[in-house]
Design brief:
Chains A, B: NAD(+) binds at residues 70-75, 104-108, 128-129, 141, 150. Chains A, B: Pathway: Metabolic intermediate biosynthesis; chorismate biosynthesis; chorismate from D-erythrose 4-phosphate and phosphoenolpyruvate: step 2/7. Chains A, B: Residues 180-324 form the 3-dehydroquinate synthase C-terminal domain. Chains A, B: It is found in: Cytoplasm. Chains A, B: Its EC number is 4.2.3.4. 2 copies of one chain form a homodimer. Chain A is α/β, with parallel strands linked by helices. Chain A has 2 domains: 2-171, 3-Layer(aba) Sandwich (Rossmann fold), CATH 3.40.50.1970; 174-357, Dehydroquinate synthase-like, alpha domain. Helix content of chain A is 44%, strand content 19%. The first copy, chain A, has 12 helices and 11 strands. Chain A has a 7-stranded mixed β-sheet with strand order 1-2-9-6-5-3-4, with helices on both faces. A two-stranded antiparallel ribbon of chain A has the order 7-8. In chain A, helix 3 links the parallel strand 5 (97-102) and strand 6. In chain A, helix 4 runs parallel beside helix 5, helix 5 packs antiparallel against helix 6 (193-207) and helix 8 crosses helix 9 (263-280). Chains A and B meet through helix 2, strand 7 and strand 8 of A and helix 2, strand 7 and strand 8 of B.
């Protein structure tokens, strides 16, 4: 088992990474008599809910659960309300613990529910998708979507422990494994050229879910993100670098309707757009853009805009991005491969041109 | 103008108290070019929205507003969503400021919206009811109700400034002025016997809205609450004392349906129940209970349970209180008049007997 510690101002919490951790009572920070509510969804619950419930009941916890429908389109205030209702119906007090068992959507909704229920209860993440394991379960960003924008409503709220059982990836659809690899590649691109190299050598093993490489990869990603979050918990500075490709990607997700493209797929194309813009600005070479494109393609990820979307469809969505300040578009771009930065007032015609460079022309 | 500073771990913020402050640009921590969204309701907006809007426009702010229906029953996730929609439709970014113009409901909903929109934006409170001026606008508790419990969903989130224009009380229905006085009396009862004496001497002036006494009274209440909050921002200890009468009172509000009794009216009866229980335990004398009852009555507040509610109706609601820990009922009681404490595991039959003592028998 590997452990990554996330160091925050007021406290630290561990991320445990290994096989069969769902069944390991020692990784749960719970004791006999503790009340627990597991939040999961209809897809994940049949696979893992019994295992987690039994492990916790053996510890002596009182365990109940609430299941949400599966999918990004249920990342809403309505799903949040389902969790609150379940907690209230069973008289859960301020001393209860909420556990998110599932992917990024479950983690984000349950995390925001934990932040909000009685103004804050304890929270444990058990991410079961690669995306959630390397990204959304680290750093305390929780949120739900609004019809007018993704992740617009939420809180910064940290879990007390994150438990990553890498065997859960065996039940994950391949398309979602690949989508998770988009975020993995992002870490290399923005902050760690050596890791980018490592990925170029091991991407096929990761696609094939080779356990040792997977566990190293996940721990490396968690460490990179944990370091960034420790420096900048509430995203006033460095943390924004983690959003490489996300402003473009969110535009794709919003335009197509949540859930039609996977988040990682949208981010893959978004990173290509950010790379194209970085190349236009003279930061990186055409060869660097090619390396990124090739790595994404080997992970079976898209690298061009959805064919139902025109370049001019992007900007209205992008202007609602949380990084927009005083009406000015700020984007994460690449200074070099392995080093990202945030721009302050990006020219919109350049942005349009970079989007066009990643759009199929008939 | 009086100023009370609330000292928090990471920063301080001022509460300004005086006449005609709505029109005073110097009390608003805003500058030319700032974007502002005012949240108000249908009752308050016709009275004060223009005044505040003009003052801010003179500073050079871009001002928009969103109006909620008036009343506790609109303190819901749905109202929250109205605010998010308004913010998103007008492309408000993370650098915008939300202003709550209204009573406790507006302050609580807008405060929670500010805490949640893009995971937190700046927030200014302009409370226009006595209750909000002495209580809900100080201390950073924000929340909405759930059909199964009051204030169950929310956040601890502090404003950057609170602006109390005491002339707004002239337009407040007398019944609401009185309800606010319940919380005023509470401060004396729990923490400040000298202030309790002062209230016994000046309660008639307060009921009559005599400005100088009002301003002193509000500043004294804000100072008491600010001191408590500074010691205990997230209610792990002392802050719970502020809830004298509230566990009983919330049961009344939930049972009758939100908004039928005013919060202060329910708290007045709740304080009588807490006092009756304190007397049963031998803490305070019958004469002390009588002083509290007389002061509440002079403020035209109820002192006995609603006649549609039986003593046994209380406990199921009370067991969902946020102070319940591990299934044990914790209540704020009086050690002496002017000194409250939190009990750890209150016997339910004693609680029932105290409720009965404040119930009309035919």
């Amino acid at each position: 088992m590997l452990t990554v510690n996330v160091e925050l101002k007021e406290r630290r919490y561990p991320i445990y990474i290994g096989e069969n951790l769902l069944k390991d009572p020692s990784v749960y920070p719970l004791k006999s008599g503790d009340k627990v509510m597991i939040v999961s969804n209809e897809t994940i619950a049949p696979l893992y809910l019994d295992t987690v419930t039994k492990t916790l009941e053996n510890i002596g916890c009182k365990v109940s659960n609430v299941l949400l429908p599966d999918g990004e389109k249920y990342k809403t205030l309505q799903s949040l309300d389902l969790i609150f209702t379940a907690l209230l119906k069973e008289n859960h007090g301020r001393d209860t613990t909420l556990i998110a068992l599932g992917g990024g959507v479950i983690g984000d909704v349950a995390g925001y529910a934990a932040a909000s229920y009685q103004r804050g209860i304890k929270f444990i993440q058990i991410p079961t998708t690669l995306l959630a394991q390397v990204d959304s379960s680290v750093g305390g960003k929780t949120a739900v979507n609004h019809p007018l924008g993704k992740n617009m409503i939420g809180a910064f709220y940290q879990p007390i422990t994150v438990i990553v059982d890498t065997l859960t990836l065996n039940s994950l659809p391949k398309r979602e494994v690949n989508a998770g690899l988009a975020e993995v590649i992002k870490y290399g691109a923005i902050l760690d050229l050596a890791f980018f190299h490592w990925l170029e050598q091991h991407i096929d093993n990761l696609v094939a879910l080779q356990q040792a490489d997977l566990q190293y990869c996940i721990s490396r990603c968690c460490q990179i993100k944990a370091d960034v979050v420790a420096r900048d918990e509430t995203e006033k500075g460095d943390r924004a670098l983690l959003n490489l490709g996300h402003t473009f990607g969110h535009a794709i997700e919003t335009h197509l309707g949540y859930g039609n493209w996977l988040h990682g797929e949208a981010v893959a194309v978004g990173m290509m757009m950010a790379a194209a813009l970085s190349e236009q600005l003279g930061n990186i070479s055409k060869a660097d853009v090619g390396r990124l494109e090739k790595l994404l393609a080997r992970a079976n990820l898209p690298t061009i805009s959805p064919d139902t979307m025109q370049p001019e469809d992007y900007l209205p969505h992008m202007m609602r991005d949380k990084k927009v300040l005083a009406g000015k578009l700020r984007l994460v771009l690449l200074k070099t491969l392995g080093q990202a930065y945030v721009t302050t007032d990006m020219d919109k015609s350049l942005v349009l041109s970079a989007i066009s460079a990643c759009t199929q022309t008939d």
